[in-house]
């Protein structure tokens, strides 16, 4: 069923339609807020998570926290689709008991780089904008994996250093905007709020931004370091990509066409370091947790959820499971994930005594089993070169330091390496979507069927594997055993054998 084959309602979702959509609104009361937040990376995750919390916060406690969303990929199609609906879209929460459709109003404006650069920087210069938040994924930080500083080898960074007033990258845009704020009459910065899956995401972004600024103007870098808050957060909600079927379903539920509905699970969580010198929405009034230290929550989520998500994704791409719920329904694979979380990941976490890690694990397994979401493994398998270090390799390093086993984690790394050959066990080919795709595919191809050559080639990719881990003899031995098992028995055989 696609939007092209089903008769959709003639009218598009619009603010004029809202009086007829009361059943799909968080509240009938609503004052159109002025824009107080610019969000970089207006993808499905932001629209299912921060935008929802922010609308709820404004309903609970008021405030001008309307959102200006910015797409950085030059995606004017996404901008046009949302602006044709005056920023409105439907959020479709899909659980085992059915779907709940909510029309979200917090998004007031959508702009696209570079087409709307002038409007974007005018918005960033507006003193009413007190928060710039981001969901740009790991690769959007332009970060040198070894140093944590800005990646000077990135051509886009080189462009922005050469043309700092016409930036295209996140560091370049943030530094140009903060420079303008420093030089303006009131000299007030905005708070920079990372909402990406990185450990210490606020501090990581601060290091990238300050190192970029320092290449241009040491005084500006010092001002940013001293005056700009970069709180860390942990964000959690499983949000698949939008499909045609989702558009049809949203239209049937609303009676209006929505070109950009967002599917998501019912679960959501947001843990935020409470450091907002310029103020913030009342997120704590609507379920977000404002804390002093996000780290314990960040690591639990990165390692327990994202680490097993990536494990499921790569074993599934090889073994032929299309979605996460189909993969976790495979008993041997579910057992492997359960044991990985229990025996290899959870022991690396330093959690408050009140944190029920077994309950967290069981809740994750139930979320993965949600049959209504159809979260595609191929979506999660993207960008592995950026995702593996924080999700799996840091956990392996912690296990090595503790002198504890990590064979299931090693199988996940071996599955990623095997995945880079570009075909499933049955020969089905798939695309490798990754910032390093060309390099990784060439290395995998050069190794042909030689698993030792494959391991040596990929362990040499310093953007992914640091030299210490790559040289660790026991890790190499375990990895090679897993690679050979995957090659000899396929993913399904390896899962059964590697319990
Ligand atoms: C997923 C995440 O696509 C992926 O890499 O692991 O987007 C995951 O769904 C979210 O982090 C869940 O909060």
From TrEMBL:
Keywords: NAD, Oxidoreductase. The keyword Oxidoreductase applies. Signal peptide: none annotated. Residues 293-483 form the Mannitol dehydrogenase C-terminal domain. PROSITE patterns: MANNITOL_DHGENASE. The keyword Oxidoreductase applies. InterPro entries: 6-PGluconate_DH-like_C_sf, 6PGD_dom2, Mannitol_DH, Mannitol_DH/Oxidoreductase, Mannitol_DH_C, Mannitol_DH_CS, Mannitol_DH_N, NAD(P)-bd_dom_sf. It comes from the Bacteria. Residues 36-284 form the Mannitol dehydrogenase N-terminal domain. SUPFAM superfamilies: 6-phosphogluconate dehydrogenase C-terminal domain-like, NAD(P)-binding Rossmann-fold domains. This is Mannitol dehydrogenase family protein. It comes from Paraburkholderia podalyriae. The lineage of its organism: Bacteria, Pseudomonadati, Pseudomonadota, Betaproteobacteria, Burkholderiales.
